Amino acid sequence: MTSPAHLTQRARPGAVPRGRRLAAATAVLLTVAVAVALAALAGCGGPDHLEGKVVAVDDTGKGDRPLAGGWVAVFEDDALLGFLSGAGIDVPSTGDLPYVGGRVLHDDVTSAGGSLASIDADGTFALTATGRHTVCRLVEAPQVDVLKGCAVVDLPAKGRLQLSVGAAGLRATLDD
């Protein structure tokens, strides 16, 4: 006589049931698939960005030194005028742009359509903007920031941008 109890096999003591083995194998395969997909994305480099550094240029031959803290404000060409007038700063001639200065608020930057990138303790920052832009250096001060020069530059998708501060005002140079 055969009964349903005789047709099912009993699991060995300590053995993992077949359903759980299948679930565990599926979990491992999914984990591997996600890891492979993430590795493929990392290989693409993620979003493009331009690495930058702010340095003080020393004309006495002591060498450049990083300038820590503050922000780099980035504007499209047509937004710079709105930023300066919104902050109550007279619009300089092109030759005086590296020396432009005044007290500003972060809201002045963002309301003019600009963006801010923080400068870390090593003087480095990262930008994602590309094309012709005006970059300005902002230094922290109590309750406001101080604008310390601007430069017009064509920003590539990747590379290095150096903002130099010295007797010539703020200068922007690109390294590939």
How many DSSP helices? Answer: 4
Estimate what percentage of residues fall within beta strands: 35-45%
CA radius of gyration is 29 Å
How many angstroms does the end-to-end distance come to? Answer: 84 Å
Task: Write a structural description.
The chain is α+β, with helices and mostly antiparallel strands and 176 residues long. The chain has two domains: 15-46; 50-175, Sandwich (Immunoglobulin-like), CATH 2.60.40. Helix content is 26%, strand content 36%. The protein contains four helices and ten strands. The chain has helices spanning 4-7, 18-43, 77-86, 106-111, and strands at residues 50-56, 65-66, 71-76, 101-104, 115-118, 124-127, 131-140, 145-155, 159-166, 169-175. The strands form two sheets. Strands 1, 2, 6, 9 and 10 form a five-stranded mixed β-sheet that branches. A five-stranded antiparallel β-sheet has the order 4-8-7-3-5. A hairpin with a 2-residue loop joins strand 9 and strand 10. The longest helix has 26 residues, at 18-43. The protein is globular and about 85 Å long. The termini are far apart. The model is unreliable at 25-46 (pLDDT under 50).
